[in-house]
Amino acid sequence: MLTIGEYQLHSLKVQEFLFEGGPLPGRNLDPSKPLPKIRLATRLLLIVGRGRRILVDTGIGELCWTSRWAANATSPYRLREELGKVGLTPGDITDLVFTHLHSDHVGGAFQCGGDRLVPVFPYAQVIVQEENYRTACRPEERERLSYNETIIDEFRQLSLFHTISGTQEIFPGIDVIISNGHTRAQQLVRVTDGNTTLLHGADLIPTTAHYPASRVTGNDIDARTVIEEKAAILEEAYRHGWILFFGHDPFRHAATVLQRPTGFVPGPAPEF
Ligand SMILES: [Zn+2]
After folding, report:
1. Which regions of 60-119 does DSSP assign to beta strands (E)?
2. Which CATH number is correct for 2-20+37-267, 3.60.15.10, 2.40.50.180, 3.40.50.300, 3.30.2010.10?
3. 10 Å Cβ neighbour count for 194?
4. Residues 223, 212: contact at Cβ < 8 Å?
5. 47 CA distance to ligand 1 middle (Å)
6. What is the CA(126)–ligand 1 centre distance, in A?
7. In angstroms, what is the span from residue 248 Cα to ligand 1's centroid?
8. What is the largest CA-CA distance in the chain?
9. How far is the CA of 92 from the centre of ligand 1 (A)?
10. Nearest Cα to Cα of residue 139 among 186, 202, 184
11. How many CB atoms lie within 10 A of CB 125?
12. Which of 59, 123, 226, 250 is the most buried (most CB within 10 A)?
């Protein structure tokens, strides 16, 4: 657990999966060699304090319906077990903040109940960026497979679904920063008390392997924007000693930023 101001932060590693790294040819051109996949995790950031229990993203989930992601999951979805370690159940979550609505970040918000989907967090208000929601409703071809129409439809029907627009404070000491390179209006969640700051890197900086600004992800919609946005964030994190939280790193949940002649590299971060 990490304490920042009045909040306690927890890192919940809920699942592992394999990812092909982005758009690939529709068929393998050399059937004798399988296409390479990289090992990733889904980690959720839980923020508890001031009467709120806020979960940032929900991961892939049990996923009987988003086959693309479910097929790549290499472990069961351990949400309840991970929440249980801090004495909570899904019904205790007051707020779900989604960095963006790609299926590997929202799938866990629903579970299969017979022939329909049922919300996993019945009492949580859902906070998403309006522009990202509009993008999810009409994704461009490059990221069409990353959004799941069924899940987006389910969100639309939730009475506690709530959209916001732009960089802003969402709770005292918690704000969101907008990033447009991975998808439109991804929001990075930042928690600060003026001394210690933690920034959820979302899919702009999803693992320590993404520290070099030029290392973009295969499914980013705009690599040049990713590079510019990431360079600015790494610079700021380095100058102010921010802790970066990684939603997809299978080995490390957080790191600081150090500067070396070769560029920025991951530094030590507190355990939590
Ligand atoms: Zn992702």
Report:
1. 95-97, 110-113, 116-119
2. 3.60.15.10
3. 8
4. no
5. 20
6. 18
7. 7
8. 57
9. 25
10. 184
11. 17
12. 59
Contact 53, 88 (CB under 8 A): yes
β-partners of residue 145 are none
Residue pointed to by tokens 């900086």: 205
Q: Which two tokens stand for residue 221?
A: 């919609």
- Summarised one tens digit per residue, pLDDT across range 45-71 is 999 999 999 999 999 998 655 556 666
Residue 11 has pLDDT above 70, yes or no: yes
| CA 246 to ligand 1 center in whole angstroms | 10
Average pLDDT rounded to a whole number, residues 188-214 = 96
Per residue in 247-257, pLDDT (tens digit) is 999 999 999 99
Helix and strand counts by DSSP (H, E) for the chain: 6, 16
Band (pLDDT 50/70/90 cuts) for residue 144 is: confident
Give the burial class of 14: count Cβ atoms within 10 A of its Cβ; 0-12 exposed, 13-18 middle, 19 or more buried: buried
